[in-house]
Batch of 2 targets.
Target 1
Amino acid sequence: MRIVVDAMGGDNAPKSNVEGALIAAQEWKDTEIILVGDEAQMGAFLKDKPANLKVVHASEVIEAEDEPVKAVRRKKDASMVVAGRMIREGEADAMISAGNTGALMTTGLLVVGRMKGIERPALAPMIPTLDGKGMLALDLGANMDSKPEHLQQYALMGSLYREKVHGIAKPRVGLLNVGTEPGKGNELTKHAYPLLEELPIHFVGNVESRDVMNGVCDVLVCDGFSGNILLKSIEGTAGALFSLLKEQFSKSLKTKMAAALMMPELRSLKSTLDYKEHGGAPLLGLSGLVVKSHGSSDANAIKNGIRQARTALQNRLVESISNEISGK
């Protein structure tokens, strides 16, 4: 299998992307890793290049502040666009980028292409849960406005992802809402509810945001606007919590000693809430496998994103979703 990495995307590019790709190439000899980006900039971090790591030069970069559609259309030689083109032309099987989310979504739609039968691809990151298993949530930002039929497609794709990539039999699928009763919510969720009941999935009904981290379902379905607010709220709360803990444990010698004793447990807690452990969020509904890594991803996050892509490819995720949508 061939996995292409947008080496110039993200806050720590190209260093973290190159280092993550190197770790992955050394660990998985059966996988060809392709780094796309400025060859000169990448060269500083490529002193020992494994045989299964390839470099493809791209002269342009899509920046965080670029307007997505214009950037994708005008910067034909941008690393992200070149990577997407490699997917479309069959030169790679999956791509990973920590770059501009809007531009990656646009690349997915305009360059890679939508899957037949899917109206709106969805961004599907993992939300941490207290049991450590995590919850796949979609859509968390690809589409700000959704129709009930879109949520129905998200539910089916999310269920297949958790089954194929995470090995969960009959994943529990919930609909994000303001109450658990079937009649609750706005027009979107009221109309989406019966559509999810029709699907060949394990639909467990409405889920309130306060219960999300308790692991009440394996897949959480929502529109991109609500989902993105939920994700940012969880990220912000986790960050604030660790800042408060650090402040409290630094107050005196006694609290510093307590912190030293609790360090293994604190590290475990941080790992449970750390997005880097999950690697990235797939853009489900495209004709090829595209994974969005967090903008501040380090080498470990990139490596985990590659691991995630490998598992999806091994389990023929894209083909499984396509067959289910087309009724084959």
Target 2
Amino acid sequence: MTTEDKSGTPLPADISLANRYGGPKRTLSRKAKRGAAIAALAAGIGFLAWVSTSSAMSSVTFKDVGYRTVDATQTELDFQVSRDPGTAVKCAVKALDSKFAIVGWKVVDIPSAPAAGGAESPDGGRTVALREVLRTESQSVSAVVDSCWVPDGAK
């Protein structure tokens, strides 16, 4: 009496693939998909609200007006800074060479202006125009305001 050798019998394809790669993946239920979509939508709306309000609440803005290279050791930068009247501000300005390397750098202190009613400027003293002279270590081809901020403890 011989018994049949079943080890040589091929298994159906779906069983052998399941043994090799694992069973079929579980899918999210309709309720879980809806919850994930609502959470992603709420996070997106929250992020957009944060971005729009944080940029609108910035109390200091600046604008480059122009520059003039005097010689290889000096550059003049004209710029405007807008801030709340009565607020002291600091701005970092820089001069760049033709390869965009910084060849001059300076932090400018802008004192607070009185919050008087508009005799000195149409916007009530909010915007101030400045000209700063930067000493450079080589010939500059541009000068810009890098950043402006309200120092800690200033109002």
